[in-house]
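Entry:
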Amino acid sequence: MTDKPACTASELLAVMSARLLNDGQIVFAGVGIPLLAVTLAQRLHAPSLTIMFEGGVIGPFIEPGKLPPSTNEQRCTRKANMVLPITDVLLLLQRGYIDIGFMGGAQIDRYGNLNSSFIGDPDKPKIRLPGTGGGNDISSLANMIVAMKHEKRRFVAEVDFVTSPGFLTGGTSRIDAGLVTGGMFRVVTDLALIGFDSESRQMSVLALHEGVTREQVLDNTGFDLAFDDTLAVTAPPSSDELAVLRELDPEQLYTA
């Protein structure tokens, strides 16, 4: 009998993202799916993973059922190793101590550039978004994992604004711009797991989630998207993964 319990799209994102994290890594995480994924990884296979928040918190313990609505909220400091000034945490980032930056975004393009600032004309935007916070610093200096729902309005040919840089215009453009470290590592969606070509730096689908077709992915993407020659299928979330996830977020604040 196959262990394939039903799950929401957000639960799928959290589980698939958690599987990308390794024990011992230091991860800059935002609230929502990124925080849920890193906490899930800690509980299941990466007990020595260290969570960092841009507000200055290093190594907090996230209590089940008490997920914070913001990284500046006091629940983010429970059992933390240290609470530093924001500038000191960003200094650690500049010195290369952070393995992974983990965030979401409103728009992403084929080179992994993220927009979380506004939608539409910059002089007269249709929607104003939260903005960068520490997103630009993190994506400029760390290897990035992005988790977001796979929708054509989000996967666009060109983002309305580059809040957090990916590989800019592809090829060597990121390095040419002076961003010599970090870059996009993986994009996790509710349809697929996506990487980036080592030369062109364009997105390439590495794996589809069980039951998803190439056509579904293409129909929900606003640009031509390549597929890896060894395209795989991910294993669905297990009962154990979903049980821990639902203990962490019993009211589905992040996973509805």
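The longest helix spans residues 33-44.
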